[in-house]
């Protein structure tokens, strides 16, 4: 295939027709082989002169556009023989090649087992130039190379040396042909210069044919991904994942692209081809769209800086370097030196733990981790309770926070073990019951190691609550706690700590859902009555028995309030009737006195029977 890829003008059917008329079979064969290579799949490799890249055409388009069935050369009129170009192309006379993508391989080569390969990867801009040391270039060029590395250090990693060394090695290894099994993620506002560095890499170091810029996640999540064929770098701009569910779908697909050695290239109306995976991923975003689990090993979240925002003079000097191919050549040679200097460097093992990564893990922690953090660690408490009681509290927490999706009871135990929590199945110390037990110090260390606690939480390992220490280590404390629930008479209602009004409203709604209670405002005086009837208000969320006691006392209180309301209504009705009767009696007597001019006898004692409340009336309190 000595002619393939050497054409300087686009394929032209009129040139084919000219050769047919001139009956130039050899010229037609050469012309076809200049643009097309037969593959071992239902496709054809096509050299696009305009883009100077190799494309994969499906057979249908190839036969209908470029090599139609009437491409015939007739000769020997007596025997009426003909040469059909399409039949010749698909005959055994034309060799078959297997498409591959290899960065440092020639266009055509034969493998160890005799297989013929065609390398569809574009050539690096400076791969064919003689090797030079960076110090062999002029001082001016060396300074410009340093300027571009400084751009990476300032904008991408906020001048943090550890992160800069990692990013520098990542780029050096990737540019020189090593597949990176981590992705670089840059989050920051527009205008900080996130894209300027890799634009220089594309234009002057490796070549723009090796870069793909896109915001379309369908190339990872949908069926067809042929667009990434032959791309050394894929830049995903502004990841459109508004929800955690959308991110999980994308993340599962990105995992294959980032870490796997092989990738299945899928094109429309063509055979799927399993090829070597040479792509490296960079992600840019202005939003919090990346949601990482605590055990993530693939994403490197750089601590981007706003230092150069609106620094127009700085970026004017940078833009002068971006298109300088000589600086790009020196940069490429420098990358070769850096990559060779660290042969044992591992991008996953040596990944830096950045502040952005810690914050992302903490903000996107699983709901179970958030529950343990809020209800135990931030309250400086450990865990020591039955698993059933723990799950009831967890379920109650999810209900309060309107979390609809959370692990069920069986799955929660496995999640606890994944977090490193001490979940004991059939603990002999607790009568073979499932138990959850960790001290505050243990919980603190686990959450710190997994980055589920952030510096803004303002808590340290030595902040454990003294009462919680006693509860975990004093065997008699549980009896005291039990008494506190069953016999609450010693509780002073005035010492009860009340929840904020909004939380009271939420809990009141939950309580009212448990029965057809009369809706009433839970004010401080009401809560004090409830305390006297059942147990301390502060233990409401921590104990099922206390919750039942609360419900019982709450019902009694409501029944009492309903009775008092009925009594007041009946008493008022009675008094109204009695007053009306007395008014009518006095009115009748006055009328009688006026009519008959009767005068009361002062010397006679009148015997007046007292009126008994409720006489002649029946009061209904129901």
Fold blueprint:
Blueprint: H1 13-21, H2 25-35, E1 36-38, E2 43-48, E3 53-58, H3 59-66, E4 72-75, E5 81-84, H4 85-89, E6 98-100, E7 108-110, E8 116-119, H5 139-156, H6 161-175, E9 183-187, H7 196-206, E10 211-214, H8 218-221, E11 233-237, H9 244-259, E12 262-265, E13 273-276, E14 280-285, E15 299-302, H10 312-322, H11 325-341, H12 355-363, H13 367-377, E16 383-386, H14 387-400, H15 409-419, E17 423-427, E18 433-438, H16 440-449, H17 466-473, H18 477-486, H19 501-513, H20 524-533, H21 544-596
Parallel strand pairs: 6-8, 9-14, 9-15, 10-11, 11-14
Antiparallel strand pairs: 1-2, 2-3, 4-5, 7-8, 12-13, 16-18, 17-18
Helix pairs in contact: 5-6, 5-11, 6-11, 7-10, 7-11, 13-16, 20-21
For the record, the CATH class of the largest domain is Alpha Beta
Q: In terms of per-residue confidence, which ranges show pLDDT below 50 for 5 or more consecutive residues?
A: 480-491, 511-524, 535-541, 598-622
For the terminal residues, how far apart are their CA atoms? Answer: 102 Å
Report the principal-axis shape. elongated
Largest sheet: 5 strands, parallel
Alpha-beta classification: alpha/beta
What count of helical segments does DSSP give?
21
CATH topology of the largest domain: Rossmann fold
The helix fraction, in percent, is 40-55%
Mean pLDDT: 81
Question: In CATH terms, what is the architecture of the largest domain?
Answer: 3-Layer(aba) Sandwich
Strand content: 5-15%
By DSSP, the count of extended strands is: 18
Whole-number tally of structural domains: 3
Strands of the widest sheet, in order across it, are 10-11-14-9-15
Radius of gyration (CA) equals 42 Å
């Amino acid at each position: 295939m000595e002619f393939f890829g050497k054409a300087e003008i686009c394929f032209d059917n009129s040139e084919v027709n000219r050769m047919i008329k001139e009956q130039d079979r050899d010229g037609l064969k050469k012309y076809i082989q200049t643009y097309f290579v037969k593959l071992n799949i239902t496709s054809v490799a096509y050299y696009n002169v305009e883009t100077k890249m190799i494309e994969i055409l499906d057979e249908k388009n190839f036969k209908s556009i470029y090599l139609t069935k009437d491409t015939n050369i007739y000769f020997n009129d007596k025997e009426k023989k003909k040469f059909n170009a399409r039949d010749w192309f698909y005959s055994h006379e034309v060799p078959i090649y297997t498409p591959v993508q290899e960065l440092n391989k020639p266009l055509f080569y034969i493998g160890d087992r005799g297989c013929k390969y065609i390398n569809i990867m574009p050539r690096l801009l400076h791969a064919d130039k003689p090797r030079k040391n960076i110090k062999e270039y002029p001082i001016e060029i060396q300074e410009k190379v340093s300027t571009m590395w400084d751009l990476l250090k300032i904008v991408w990693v906020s001048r943090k040396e550890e992160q800069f060394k990692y990013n520098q090695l990542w780029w050096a290894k990737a540019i020189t042909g090593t597949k990176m099994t981590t992705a670089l993620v840059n989050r920051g506002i527009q205008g900080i210069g996130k894209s300027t560095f890799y634009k220089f890499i594309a234009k002057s170091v490796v070549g723009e044919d090796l870069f793909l810029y896109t915001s379309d996640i369908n190339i990872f999540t949908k069926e067809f991904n042929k667009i990434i064929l032959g791309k050394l770098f894929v830049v995903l701009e502004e990841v459109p994942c508004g929800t955690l569910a959308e991110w999980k779908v994308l993340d599962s697909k990105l995992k294959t692209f980032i870490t796997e050695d092989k990738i299945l290239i899928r094109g429309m109306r063509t055979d799927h081809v399993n090829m070597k995976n040479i792509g490296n991923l960079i992600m840019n975003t202005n939003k919090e769209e990346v949601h990482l689990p605590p055990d993530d090993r693939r994403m490197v979240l750089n601590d981007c800086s706003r230092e150069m925002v609106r620094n127009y003079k700085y970026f004017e000097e940078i833009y002068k370097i971006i298109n300088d191919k000589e600086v790009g050549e020196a940069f490429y040679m420098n990358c070769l030196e850096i990559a060779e200097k660290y042969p044992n460097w591992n991008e996953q093992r040596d990944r830096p733990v950045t502040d952005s990564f810690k914050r992302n893990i903490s903000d996107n922690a699983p709901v179970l981790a958030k529950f343990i953090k809020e209800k135990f660690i931030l309250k400086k408490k450990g865990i020591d309770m039955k698993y059933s009681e723990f799950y009831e509290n967890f379920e109650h927490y999810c209900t309060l926070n309107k979390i609809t999706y959370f692990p069920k009871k069986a799955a929660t135990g496995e999640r606890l073990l994944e977090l490193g929590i001490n979940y004991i199945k059939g603990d002999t110390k607790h009568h073979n019951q499932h138990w959850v037990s960790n001290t505050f110090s243990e919980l603190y260390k686990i959450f710190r190691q997994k980055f589920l606690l952030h510096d803004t939480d303002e808590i340290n390992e030595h902040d454990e609550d003294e009462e919680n220490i006693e509860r975990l280590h004093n065997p008699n404390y549980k009896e005291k706690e039990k008494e506190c629930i069953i016999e609450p008479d010693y509780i002073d209602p005035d010492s009860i700590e009340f929840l904020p009004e909004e939380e009271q409203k939420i809990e009141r709604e939950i309580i009212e859902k448990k029965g057809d209670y009369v809706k009433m405002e839970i004010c401080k005086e009401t809560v004090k009555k409830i305390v006297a009837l059942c147990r301390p208000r502060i233990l409401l969320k921590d104990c099922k028995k206390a919750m039942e006691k609360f419900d019982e006392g709450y019902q009694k209180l409501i029944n009492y309030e309903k009775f008092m309301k009925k009594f007041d209504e009946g008493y008022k009705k009675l008094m109204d009737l009695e007053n009306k009767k007395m008014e009518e009696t006095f009115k009748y007597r006055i009328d009688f006195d006026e009519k008959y001019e009767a005068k009361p006898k002062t010397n006679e004692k009148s015997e007046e029977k007292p009126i008994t409340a409720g006489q002649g009336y029946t009061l209904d309190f129901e």
